[in-house]
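Consider the tokenized backbone below.
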């Protein structure tokens, strides 16, 4: 008797899960495709040559750098 009760609970749980799942699929719950991001211009650091997005680069009078330390080093070498 105990096994029949467990079997009935499992079957009801499976039925509920399957009905909820099919309702989600019927509603078209698929995630909307994302639009690709526009391309970003890349620049090379004048000190080490590392490439990084232009909007993340540190601008100096001589060009773009990956960090403030490289900007300072390059400006000291040029003096």
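A designed sequence for it:
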């Amino acid at each position: 008797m105990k096994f029949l009760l467990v079997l009935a609970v499992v079957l009801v749980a499976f039925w509920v899960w399957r009905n909820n799942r099919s309702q989600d699929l019927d509603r078209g719950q698929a995630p909307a495709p994302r639009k690709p991001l526009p391309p970003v211009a890349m620049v090379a650091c004048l000190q080490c040559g590392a490439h990084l997005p232009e909007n993340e680069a540190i601008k100096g009078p001589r060009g773009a750098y990956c960090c403030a330390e490289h900007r300072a080093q390059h400006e000291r070498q040029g003096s």
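The two ends are 92 Å apart (CA to CA).
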